[in-house]
Design brief:
The structure is a single chain. The chain is about 40% helix and about 15% strand. By secondary structure, it is of the alpha/beta class. The chain has 2 domains: about 140 residues, Aspartate/ornithine carbamoyltransferase (Rossmann fold, 3-Layer(aba) Sandwich), CATH 3.40.50.1370; about 150 residues, Rossmann fold (3-Layer(aba) Sandwich). Strands 7-6-5-8-9 form a 5-stranded parallel sheet. Helix 3 crosses helix 4 and helix 6 runs parallel beside helix 7. It is globular.
Length: about 300
């Protein structure tokens, strides 16, 4: 049976821990220039409805390091859900490739791809969630603070797809998650309810960013206006004006608090230049870890489907 990675909740707590250990080993191999061609001769179809710097480079480079090949299919190559039915794309692409990675708008499209594909599907982002990003984020936190459990992570900004992924993670691994957001920008209510019902993590929504970041181990932000929300930009700039991560806000957190951003950053909006490029920032460690975490996810999926990989 093939296995997909569409949400963080597709992995158990022990599988997440194993993924992080694999990612660290793969990262060490890259640094030492040790080859690890676990997927030699295999190919990955990368379907992009949304463009991305990190997603394309990390997956494409990762497949090269695995000894395989990645094929970029941009918005004009596959009009997913428009020019051709999603289920037909899934079945055709599966005949040519060993893997499918898709970065899409509508979450229902990634679900349909996975349903009809005969090869593993990895969610590179949808409007609902961003599981590969969160795996990279939590890997980065473990590298700098030793573990995720017990950490107070404050997400400052819109309750968007990244925020939903933090909530999904909180339903599998216990930690303290706080969303600092103005009224009207809360996360998906079903995801919030599920995370709270899991009973593992302390979860809060706070309207005052200063109160939210007190005693925080991690401050995290994302753009206030995502792709597809350009018409709301002026309103969002007004609504989020008090939710910028700057030196003043950072001063209320722990002195060794990590500053994180999934990028791209809009300097002077959700974060200031001096903070993103300051001593607390691990933003570029986080960006690098996208590749290592994603490669580890591939290894986990392959192993669970019976492939023998000795790492």
């Amino acid at each position: 049976m093939k296995r997909d990675f569409l949400a963080v909740t597709d992995f158990s707590k022990s599988e997440i821990s194993e993924t992080f250990e694999i990612a660290k080993k793969l990262k060490a191999d890259v640094k030492a220039q040790r080859p690890h061609h676990y997927f030699a001769g295999e190919s990955m179809a990368m379907i992009f409805a949304k463009p991305s710097t990190r997603t394309r480079i990390s997956f494409e480079t990762g497949m090269f390091q695995f000894g395989g090949h990645a094929l970029y299919l941009g918005p004009n190559d596959i009009g997913i859900g428009k020019r051709e039915a999603v289920k037909d794309i899934a079945r055709v692409v599966s005949r040519y490739n060993n893997w499918i990675m898709a970065r899409l708008f509508e979450h229902k499209h990634i679900l349909e791809l996975a349903e009809y594909a005969t090869v593993p599907v990895i969610n590179g982002l949808t409007d609902y969630n961003h599981p590969c990003q969160i795996m990279a984020d939590m890997l980065t936190i473990t590298e700098h603070h030793g573990q995720v459990e017990g950490q107070k992570i404050v997400f400052i900004g819109d309750g968007n797809n990244v925020c939903n992924s933090f909530l999904n993670f909180a339903s599998v691994v216990p930690y303290h998650f706080v969303l600092a957001a103005p009224e009207g920008y809360d996360p998906d209510p079903t995801t919030l309810e599920r995370a709270r019902k899991a009973g593992l993590s302390e979860i809060e929504i706070v309207r005052d960013p200063i109160e939210a970041v007190k005693n925080a181990d991690v401050l995290y932000t994302d753009v206030w206006t995502s792709m597809g929300q350009e018409d709301e930009r002026n309103k969002r700039l007004t609504d989020f004006a008090k939710f910028q991560i700057n030196n003043e806000l950072l001063s209320y957190a722990k002195s060794d608090a990590l500053v994180m951003h999934c990028l791209p950053a809009h300097y002077g909006e959700e974060i200031t230049d001096e903070v993103l490029n300051g001593p607390n920032s691990v933003v570029f460690d986080e960006a690098e870890n996208r590749m290592h975490a994603q490669k580890a996810i591939q290894v986990m999926l392959a192993k669970s489907m019976g492939k023998e990989i000795d790492i």
